[in-house]
Amino acid sequence: MSVMHIVLYLFLIVECYCSFFDPAYIYSGIVWNDTDGKSIQSHAAGILIDPNDNSYWWYGESLKTSTLADHGVNCYHSKDLINWINIGEVLGQKQVVIQNQSGPYVIERPKVVWNPLTKLYVMWFHLDSYDYQYRYAGIATSPTPNGKFTFIDAFQPDGVPSLDMNLYEDKRNGVVQGVYFVRSCNNEYVGISKLTDDYLNTTGITSRIGEPREGHAIFYRNNRYYMMTSHLTGWSPNPAELFVTNQDNLQHAEWSSLGNPTNSPTTFNSQSTFVLPYPSRKFPGTFVYIYMGDRWNAPELLNATYIWLPFTFNSDTNVTLEWQDKWDLNDY
Ligand code: GAL
């Protein structure tokens, strides 16, 4: 081997090492740009992990203008959680049709799961009149994650008025045990229902938290379910509350409060929307649980930003969320 070859090999090894450890910073509370350099508009996010290649699809509310007629669901795509490609609007006002009622509609908190039986991507979202009187969940489906989604239905699941909501795909070792709908029931309590096999309906409320909470984000760790929530103060921030189950069963879960893991009375000026389990780079085989929240910057909402921070588990019931201006995915 010539000296030239050795130098070349050394160069390649150093290159590989450096690119593997390229910092993957997540910044909170500042404007995030997509790969075109335009600000990301995808609020009250839900993340779908692509069933085929494990890439990430980020669905969220479009720019929060004061004109309801503009509001729809935007989508971004990423392989690394850092670089986001703008896919565009995947559901708009035009797609939504409710019999005997006319829009424009409130379209909030979209969440998407993939149904292995129908092979459809199924979106659930909070669908309402401008003054929040309908209290519906809306459903739309698409054969592909990038839409456009076709509107299917608007209704009150289990006959109960529904406001803030989320979906939780209960997946263990790669096998989906069921998908659950969690929502604010008439802003009086939190109700959880398992979805039917086609994910187009619910099968009755089997678990509840007896007080009103919203911004629900469920995740599973170490044989327990957790639910991050906010209190109800509209677009203004309030202290988060984390709940935990003491048993490995979501359908009939009983929840107890672990208080506010942030210690911040405003949850760092944010409201929860999702918790993403992300495969740890530092401790392979474990996960980093990423809190995803919205800094609405009320009252205008036009400058809303995102707060993504990793949870710390001091024990199963001592869970904290610390503020960090930026953190590196490689360190977790
Ligand atoms: C918040 C809720 C948002 C939106 C807003 C409307 O409490 O979390 O999703 O519905 O109220 O005022």
* Overall number of strands: 22
- Rg from C-alpha positions? 20 Å
Q: What would you call the shape? A: globular
**Topology as a string of helices (H) and strands (E):** HEEEEEEEEEEEEEEEEEEEEEE
> Going by CATH, what is the homologous superfamily?
Glycosyl hydrolase domain, family 43
Structural class: mainly beta
**What percent of residues adopt helix (DSSP H or I)?**
under 10%
Let me know the average pLDDT.
94
How many structural domains in the coordinates? 1
By DSSP (H or I, 4+ residues per run), the number of helices equals 1
Which CATH architecture is right?
Answer: 5 Propeller
CATH level-3 fold name: Tachylectin-2, Chain A
What is the strand content?
A: over 45%
Pfam family, one: Glyco_hydro_43
Keywords: Glycosidase, Hydrolase, Signal
Family: Belongs to the glycosyl hydrolase 43 family.
Signal peptide: 1-18
Written description of the protein model:
Helices cover 5% and strands 46% of the residues. The protein has one domain: Glycosyl hydrolase domain, family 43 (Tachylectin-2, Chain A), CATH 2.115.10.20. The chain has one helix spanning 3-20; strands at 25-27, 43-49, 56-61, 73-78, 85-91, 106-115, 120-128, 136-142, 150-155, 162-172, 175-185, 189-195, 202-209, 214-221, 224-230, 241-245, 255-257, 271-279, 287-295, 305-313, 319-321, 326-328. The chain has 1 helix and 22 strands. By secondary structure, the chain is mainly β. The strands form 6 sheets. A 4-stranded antiparallel sheet has the order 2-3-4-5, with no helix packed on it. It binds beta-D-galactopyranose (GAL). Beta-D-galactopyranose (GAL) is lined by residues 44, 108-109, 164, 214-215, 232, 234-235, 271.
